[in-house]
Amino acid sequence: MAVVTKEMGNKFISSFPNINIATSVSVADIDFDKLCDQVTSQDFVPRGIVKAVLDGMIDVLCTYASIGTTIRLGDFGSIRPGLNSRSQDTAKAVTADVVYRQKLIFVPGMRLKNMMKTSGVTRVTIESALSYLSSPPRP
């Protein structure tokens, strides 16, 4: 995982000194087409089939998430619907109008959790991230 240093000030007490923290940074953006190409290169499955399966998976996920189902995807993890709402004084006052955000919550599976435990942390600069993007290593 790539990290950069970020200077943080105290928003509430301005007399406190600024602190430096490590924050993660994304070094690349993988789009849907590139993901399909990589899956195709890993196995003997044609690109069209990979794309069809992923498109079908997205459609099914949308269907089940819209009815409030938790979707378990094996080692990948699970996706469940969630929401944020404003608090109310009485239970009767809680209606759909107090919901201000609907979201999907992803919980990684064991394989992804183990990968994160064993992956290292590398400090990067903007220059090194840009040079990585111009010539990324082959998987």
Automatic annotation (TrEMBL):
It comes from the Bacteria. GO terms for molecular function: DNA binding. Coiled coil: none annotated. Transmembrane segments: none annotated. InterPro entries: HU-HIG (IPR041607), IHF-like_DNA-bd_dom_sf (IPR010992). Residues 21-122 form the HU domain. The keyword DNA-binding applies. Keywords: DNA-binding. Signal peptide: none annotated. The keyword Iron-sulfur does not apply. Pfam families: HU-HIG. This is HU domain-containing protein. It comes from Bacteroides helcogenes (strain ATCC 35417 / DSM 20613 / JCM 6297 / CCUG 15421 / P 36-108). The lineage of its organism: Bacteria, Pseudomonadati, Bacteroidota, Bacteroidia, Bacteroidales.
